[in-house]
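Input:
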Amino acid sequence: MNAPANGTVRLTIDGVEVTVPAGTTVLQAAERAGVVVPHYCYHPGIPSRPAQCRMCLVEVEGQPKLQPSCVLGALDGMEVRTQTEQAREARRSVIEFLLLHHPLDCPICDAAGQCMLQDYAYETGQLKSRFEEAKLVLGRDRIADDILYFADRCILCTRCVRFMRDVAQDDALIVAQRGHKAYIDTFPGRDLDNLFRGNIVDVCPVGALVHEDFLFKARAWDFDSAPGICGGCANGCNIDVDVKENQVVRVKPRHNGAVNGWWMCDEGRRDLVMWNRGRRIDLPLVRRDGELAPVHWGDALAHVAAALGNVRGGVALASAFVENESLYFLRRLLGRLEITGGGFRVARGEERALPGFPSLALRAERAPNGEGARMLGFTETDALPEAPADGALVVLGDRLEGAPADFGKRAGFFLYAGTHLSEAAGNADVILPVAGYPETDGTFVSHEGRVQRFRQALQPPGVARPAWLVLARLVELLGEDGAAVRDAPAAFAALAADHPAFAGLDWNGLGLKGAAAAAAATAE
Amino acid sequence: MGYPHSHDLEVGTILSRHFGDPEARRLETWTGLGGYEGLRKAVEMDPGEITAVVKDSGLRGRGGAGFPTGLKWSFMPQEPDGPQYLCCNADESEPGAFKDREILRWVPHLLIEGCLIAARAIRAEHVYIYVRGEYFPFTRILNDAVVEAYGNGYLGRNILGSGWDCDLTVHIGAGAYIAGEETGLMSSLVGGRAEPRVKPPFPAQSGVFGRPTTVNNVETLAAVPMILVNGADWYRQWGTEKSPGTKLWCCSGHLERPGNYELPLGVPLKDVIYDVCGGIPGGRKLKAVIPGGSSTAMLTADELDIPTTYEGLQEGGSSLGTASPIVMDDSTNIVRAMRRIADFYAHESCGQCVQCREGTYWAARILKRIERGEGRMSDLDTLYDLCEQLTGRTICVLADSVVFPLRSSLDKFRPEYEALIRR
Amino acid sequence: MSGGAEGPPGGGKKSPVKKIHPAVVPAQPFQLAERRPVERLFADEEGRERLASAVSRYPEKKAALLPMLAYAQERNGVVSDAAMEEIAEALELTPAYVRSVATFYTMYAKRPVGRHWIQVCTCISCHLHGADEVFEAFLERTGTRAGEVSEDGKWTVIEAECLGACGFATVVQANDRYFENVTPETVPEVLAELDQGETEA
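Output:
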């Protein structure tokens, strides 16, 4: 056997040889070797490793006692076994111990189906507990205005406590008492109010910490899940969007070490759950005899193409909530109309970083794609554009909050492509129903210029379609043969081929972790 | 000599000779009795030389584990890159043990001297004496001695004119057995829950305040001055190759003369019980002995003819522990006694490790049920299985500690368990 | 309750604060005569002195936490939420953290206890000497149930784990005092002695 390269060690785990950097733990090395070592207290995103759940004990050749693999450094030539009788027996007993007082209320538990206690109990546990005494009953407690603690389900792995201490660096959640009387708590009268508190629910390996918003709403197997990008701010946190019956029931962080780690903020969690509120546009509407009337898509687009055929010049208002693909085809449409520039509005707030993982912050810019909009030639503005009497007013995505009642009425032609019908949008000559960002595939550019894909999580209402699909078709109708695209990868390919900032990127290559854009918008 | 009784088999070294004499607490009296002679020697010696003498003496840690003291000291960095610390473990709380309290109570200056010599050996600049919180009266005595030592040049700057500085602080606990565990003590001292932690890093690498630290028991440190004064060979006149020296024995339970005795290591256990302690009162017979404090395996009446050395007790199926035999006469309900011991461990488990948190509690509950007469035979199998699950699986040895008495009581007194179950 | 031996607190006259040697932790009793409850621990000179002296003993402020919890117990006979918040502020910790530490240890009373906090060791060596009966005798004589404060506010009786005096079973701790070789028969004497100490003070 050749010696491993400098700075690496080679060991075998359940007979699988694996080479890892020196300093890797056995548990991490096992992951590399494709061996699952059950564990509770260890969490890759939480620095402290108390090794207290004793679930990850493994047998190491030459060591009489089982060793906690989460803190055991991998050494060259080590032989590790996870499936020996001793190791399996140790796990069985940990499960039995953890279930002594557990209420076994899986049928009503939010964590059922994604519970590490359930999973490992099925894997290595036993059918019947030998515990004949009365179970201790501790009840439940509110530890934040949106988080409940079910003490009886708690296995005291302290992940939540250590997330708050090590990562949020807000020592507000604690283990109170000791031994079998211990439980998780806050200081009396001081519920958790940390912006990142929601992560304690995610790190809980069982159903002890639950979001009240989600309580009894859905079972893990009831919903679909799609990888998304949080729209709450410009940070670009990678998320999973959990959907039941076309409603977002829950948003959880999806790991991306370069962006948000395992975490996200609570503003972000609420953002998408709130997304569908308001009056959605679900049909194309065309103004005829002063009144907006529903029409077929074909008629609507033909109407727009005909109207715009005579218009040159005008103004555009885009949105930092719209994906790059749609902004790109908007840019091409505006080009046909000889409109340059264009604005977008964005809300700003205080920037608040996660102290233990500072590449995650609730960014001051509270929209997911301001950077993309800038890269595609749009400029941030506070003011709504004044529409010229002989030109076009094209609005994509902006919900026109704060617009005057007569907004757009003076424009030569007012095209509104958006998701929500506001009074100002009602002034448009044509209203096109487009999909909002969780309703389409697309990409956003994060505040630091990282291009990240998201997948469609919801069905758009009515006959709404992705804006890139609609706008590309319009460009084609206005004379650019072959401009139309059928899917998001094609839309992105057109963007990447055309725009230097996106040069060299391709849809599949982006994967679900994203990649840096070639140039930041500031280069323009 | 012993307190409150003494016996011919005892060796009255300076460790115990002045037990019972309040005068010995005073610095003036104490120096007249030979106090601080070891320190005078030590300040003239290199740290390495001090460690070598203690290594040669074979002194082993008196807190229960019996780890060679000199060897432990040698783990400390010899070229410190910052502060290093000595912690004196006076968090005496092993059921059966009450020796450290007598040292604090009668010979506080001996302890201070031992701490200083050890601090010099391990290049510590500050000593913390962690006294269990309940020991108010003894802490006050220690406090007075510390203030006296500071006032007379034995502590602080330029100790005994040698140019060497060392500080000493008395710290009190607040009622947690687990604070007597080395890493638990460190967690507690720095202002935390007394939760033990995984090693590595070892205390000599990173201990209190993140700095190299050695933790030594009171009795260990109190034995150091006389070793330095009289030499390693002098100390080795008692005991055996592996267990040299003298040891304080804390004898409790059903005994005619319970108390502390300083005995040379190696006296047969039966002599400790029947001779030194005067045997069992009331004409009763001995049923069981837990020889080294409650964390050690029970022995029966016919298992006592063994030498009281670390190796002797191990060969005899138990361990020396803190040398604190708890003697039970034939009126003792072993199941009830065992339940009481299990209650202790359940109460004192810090709760980090699952096996310990749940297992100690479960064992205590089963024992309670058997005691009530509601047990069943399968409970004994469960208890045996718990012994398996609680052995060698946890961060510290608290869980293992309940296994030793529990398993031995099941092995040796099974008929008592069965009788209660069948009743 | 009276202000104790040094005169009522806030009585206009400043009571002298005993300077404490920085090396030693004041293992003062939580005993009736010494107890002078205050609303704010560090508002008076004594409190500030105790805090400063504790902090000076360690390289990190946090290490003064146990000494300060002990001070709260000594001064007020209880470690209240308010005291925990005050200590947290003084040591730059969160109140929650202070609570996690305070609840780990058994010697800090998180609920008020009687002026005489009687802890009967019922651990193994004392158990063998009839500690359970001694405990029952204390309960009966004080007319309380375990952990309860007697109606006159004098007594709280609890069971304790090993008090480290196993050769003198049964061992009883009352506030800072040890009573050794206690039997059910001598329980009245112990109570009388404690009671008398109270009258004298």
